[in-house]
Amino acid sequence: MLRIATAGSVDDGKSTLIGRLLYDAKTVQDDQLAAITDASRRRGDAHTDLSLLTDGLRAEREQGITIDVAYRYFATPRRTFIVADTPGHEQYTRNMVTGASTADVAMVLVDARKGVREQSRRHAFLAALLGIPHIVVCVNKMDLVDHDERVFASIAEDFAAFAAPLGLTTLAFVPISALNGDNVVTPGTARMPWYTGPPLLGLLEDMPEADAEPRDPVGARLPVQYVIRPQGGEHRYYAGSMAGGGLRPGDAVTVLPSGRTSRVLALTGPDGPVEYAYPPMPVTVTLADQLDVSRGDLICRTGDEPPTARDLEATVCWMSEHGRLRAGATYLLKHTTRTVRARVTDVRHRLDVNTLATDPRADELALNDIGRVALRVGAPLPHDPYRRNRATGAFILIDEATDNTVAAGIILDMDTETADRGPDDHHHGREHT
Hints:
Number of helices: 9
Structural class: alpha+beta
Distance between the termini: 36 Å
Oligomer: single chain
Largest sheet: 8 strands, antiparallel
Number of domains: 3
CATH topology of the largest domain: Rossmann fold
CATH superfamily of the largest domain: P-loop containing nucleotide triphosphate hydrolases
Shape: globular
CATH architecture of the largest domain: 3-Layer(aba) Sandwich
């Protein structure tokens, strides 16, 4: 399974590209194709608009932009894909963050006529911020620049210069025409013989997942979702989905935040006993000792426990149209299967995702703003830095009065963050741009 998020500026052709992928990979049903062909004809289009396969909301079709996150599934003989078509407009940054939060690969589209724009940079940075290690830059609408190799090379050079400090594992470039299908599923050698790389689909089929080593035993994490207490049974069973590393029967484990230790007696998966549990497998654990374990506790390998703290530093995207995030505000913080109260103790800065500059004078975050905040939670919270484990390093903030999710956040590595600061930053609690 490969999870893909699209990104880029409005009108760069993200929805059309996904429609072309689905169509050329022969995963579009006849009735779907007939429906969008009819819709295209009624709108006066000269061709079948493949973007309608993903732009499902009436408001999106009328405005010609993507507002919500549309998920599409398709498969080839080699691989299965989930594609999240995320909004390009700055107004819907929160939707883009949501859609990209679980992706392995970000496909950033760039209009060949317009080059790398602010929204292209913004989405590349957000992809890196969310821990997406692989970015594929699709230089689209090459048919509108006469398939000029120099245009493609110039855009690739500009984008690579911007992305150099983002720490990406993979940065690849493909010249495409989503409208005509060149270099999407099949090679566009007739019009772009100068491009000798694989088409987009071939590149995606060979792309590693973000968690390329899911069976790595280091960092075993099992957030407890259910505690099963069978009547008359000798043992309790602790159920959840593996969020990191791996567990085997016989492993010494620690339950956090209590710090009590035991040993794994048995593991049971969806189809019966298993000898090894790894992400994202749902599993039930039997421990050798009767411990007081509750929903929200974290079972991990002894000797490799994550830090447990009440004070957190985090990067937050504010997602609510009502109200703003300010110091002193309190929320419910949901982290894996654990929910605790949290208070914002400081807004460190607001981030300009177009320039990567920080504004330390900012004291609040509004809709779609991204910034760094300090939080104090009501109970000790075992967690990992997001860059080590995306599952145990992420959280959401919930408004207690409305039950609405108002923010999404990623936990920062305190040791690394402190080491990166200069002497003045230690005093003011700010970081260099």
